[in-house]
Each structure stands twice: as structure tokens, then as C-alpha cells.
Specification:
This protein is of the alpha+beta class. 18% of the residues lie in helices and 39% in strands.
Length: 282
């Protein structure tokens, strides 16, 4: 029986090192620099869509705290070209300026917990009974950039959790148009379609006084097979009951502490070759 490549779905553990590749989303701080383009005439529906998108960004980026449940799925493109979908569920709890808790469970049953508590980053793989920690560099925006860019961990939909969401969307979205007014789980919503340099995405935004995202579909148009990622949001709470215990992360009994891959010393190719040559002469 041929093996199935899970790609983003897998967690790799080697030599006491943890590299947790969580589900992909809008890869905050990993997109190429914006390209300058000539301004084009904006249609009425494009202007409407842009206003709705930015209203959502301003509203979500301005919340001091919230919690939300996220159910998502993503394609793993096989060598044959066939797409296999994997998924996960997450509960995200955020409190600005510097705290976040993300509980996740993958479709294969692996459970993870990520916590920023204002002083430290803690990532726990409960299934493998291992955990890793790192100093927290500052507020949420800086910590999310550090987590994704410096520690090399993919955080699902990371751009949605930063206060700079409006600026990020303005820098990365090349065009956006209005598709239709529809309903997501009974909630009247606006369906928008947007394009960027490396991804296209659709977003459904609730109508009314709380313009929160209800669903997102992202197409990685430059990747082989143009795989997609989708996320469904539910149980938004803009006034969650929070205390210090919300952002505590205690590793399970007997858990082994390991390092993030980015924390390990890196050996240059020349040094590796020299070491191998010395070993060959013994």
C-alpha cells in the first residue's frame, strides 16, 4: 500500500529537537515584500468589498481580548498529484498586550498547546509528552513574528491575531471584490474574494455591529497543485472570562524538555565536511 504524505500535518522530532509544523494559514512575516503596482480604476463592488474587509480588520485588530473556536482543513499534494485533506480544531484565547493560548487537536489525534504568558513561550505536545520553551520578546505582535519567523513555527492564521491586521492586509492584498450576501450557520454574511502575490483567498464576514470572520479559504496559487486551506470560525466571545490560570501551561508529568530547532547551534557545510573528513581518517 502506498504511503500518504501529510506535509504540513506532520510533527518531526529528531535528536531531542521539536519542529511542530502546525496547519498553514496566512503566513505572517513570511510573505515576500509588496510590489509597487500602477493604480487601477476601482469599481463600486471592489470599493464595497475593500470597505467591508478593512472594517473587519479594524474591528478584530482593535479587540483587547477574545476567544474563538476554529475548525480547519488543508490539502497535502501527493507525488501523483492527488490531494489528500487533513484537518484540525483549535481554541484560540487572546488578551492584549502580551497573552495568547492556543489549544489544538489534529485529525490524527495529536494534541498541542501553545501559550504566550508575557514572559515565556511554551509549546507542549501532549501526545508525545514533550515540550519546548523560549523567552517571550514582548507584546503579541512581536511574539507572533518571533514565533513564526525566528523559531520557525507555523501558526494557523497568524495574521488574524495581530493588532497590525489592517496594515498587513493593506500591504498584501492586491485586489478584493464582492461576491454575494449570504449566510454562514444562520449568520448574515458578506462573501469577499481577494488576491495577493502568492495566495488568493475568500473570506466570509458577519454583517452587523461585529464584523468578524466566519470562514476563510486560501489558495496557494504558486505551490504545486495549488493546494487550499480553509477555516471555519465559531463561538466568538469578545468578553471571555480570563485570569492568570488561563495562560498557564504546565507540561504533563514526565514530559521531556526539548529545544526548538532554531535554538540549536547551526553547523556550516564546511564544518560538517571537515568533521566527516576527520572521522574518515581515524
Amino acid at each position: 500500500m502506498r504511503s500518504i504524505t501529510k506535509a504540513w500535518h506532520q510533527a518531526f522530532w529528531t535528536a531531542g529537537t521539536v519542529v511542530l509544523l502546525l496547519a498553514a494559514g496566512l503566513a505572517y512575516a513570511q510573505q515576500p515584500a509588496p510590489r509597487k503596482q500602477a493604480a487601477a480604476a476601482v469599481t463600486e463592488t471592489e470599493a464595497q468589498a475593500s470597505a467591508i474587509l478593512m472594517r473587519m480588520a479594524d474591528f478584530l485588530g482593535g479587540q483587547q481580548s477574545f476567544s474563538v473556536s476554529v475548525r480547519s482543513g488543508y490539502d497535502a499534494v501527493q507525488k501523483s498529484g492527488q490531494k489528500i485533506e487533513f484537518g484540525d480544531t483549535r481554541k484560540v484565547t487572546l488578551s492584549r498586550p502580551d497573552r495568547l493560548r492556543m489549544e489544538g487537536e489534529r485529525s490524527d489525534g495529536v494534541k498541542t498547546l501553545t501559550v504566550f504568558n508575557g514572559k515565556e513561550i511554551v509549546l507542549i505536545d501532549e501526545t508525545s509528552n514533550v515540550y519546548a520553551t523560549a523567552p517571550q520578546p514582548g507584546g503579541l505582535d512581536d511574539t507572533i513574528v518571533h514565533f513564526v519567523k525566528d523559531l520557525g513555527i507555523q501558526m494557523p492564521l497568524a495574521v488574524l491575531w495581530v493588532s497590525q491586521l489592517p496594515a498587513e492586509l493593506k500591504a498584501r492584498v492586491r485586489s478584493v471584490d464582492y461576491v454575494e450576501r449570504t449566510s454562514i450557520r444562520g449568520s448574515p454574511s458578506h462573501h469577499l474574494a481577494a488576491r495577493g502575490d502568492t495566495v488568493d483567498f475568500q473570506v466570509w464576514i458577519a454583517d452587523g455591529d461585529s464584523p468578524l470572520p466566519q470562514r476563510v479559504v486560501i489558495t496557494y496559487k504558486q505551490a504545486k497543485g495549488e493546494p487550499q486551506f480553509w477555516a471555519q470560525f465559531s463561538d466568538w466571545n469578545l468578553a471571555p472570562a480570563l485570569d492568570d490560570s488561563t495562560f498557564l501551561a504546565k507540561p504533563p508529568d514526565g514530559a521531556q524538555k526539548v529545544a526548538f530547532a532554531a535554538q540549536l547551534p547551526r553547523v556550516s557545510p564546511a564544518a560538517r565536511k571537515s568533521s566527516a573528513d576527520k572521522g574518515a581518517k581515524r
